[in-house]
Amino acid sequence: MGKTNETGTFIEFKPSNERLLTTKIDIDKIKKIIKDLCYLNPGLKIIFNDQTYVSEEGISGYLYNLTNNDNIITLKKTCMKKNDIFL
């Protein structure tokens, strides 16, 4: 890796038989976890195996995709204050 003006973290993982019971990696499971992380952290961008994962909408984007892109769910952004109580 050379010099750059970009910021971020690069992680490379190579499983070892010395420390792990199995070195088989479930790529689909990792992709699912990455997608979920992006939905829970709007604006987070993760590049995994040359594929970019990002969700600008967060949970509302997750629900939109979960409902097969039907606009049947409407989310209202609400700001709560410390002493707000909802019954």
How are the secondary structure elements laid out?
Blueprint: H1 27-40, E1 45-48, E2 51-54, H2 59-66
Antiparallel strand pairs: 1-2
In terms of DSSP E residues, the strand content is: 5-15%
Number of helices: 2
Low-pLDDT regions: none
Helix content class: 25-40%
Mean pLDDT comes to 80
What strand order characterises the main sheet? Answer: 1-2
Which word captures the global form? flat
Class of secondary structure makeup: alpha+beta
Describe the largest sheet.
Answer: 2 strands, antiparallel
Query: Roughly how many Å is the radius of gyration?
Result: 19 Å
Distance between the termini: 55 Å
The tally of beta strands, per DSSP, is 2
Run of helices and strands: HEEH
Task: Provide a short characterization of the protein structure.
The protein has 2 helices and 2 strands. It is of the alpha+beta class and 87 residues long. It has a two-stranded antiparallel sheet.
Could you explain how this protein is built, in words?
This protein is α+β, with helices and mostly antiparallel strands and 87 residues long. 25% of the residues lie in helices and 9% in strands. It contains two helices and two strands, in the order H-E-E-H. It has helices at 27-40, 59-66; strands at residues 45-48, 51-54. A two-stranded antiparallel sheet has the order 1-2. The longest helix is centred in the middle third of the chain and has 14 residues, at 27-40. It is flat and about 50 Å long. The N and C termini lie far apart (55 Å). 3% of the residues are buried.
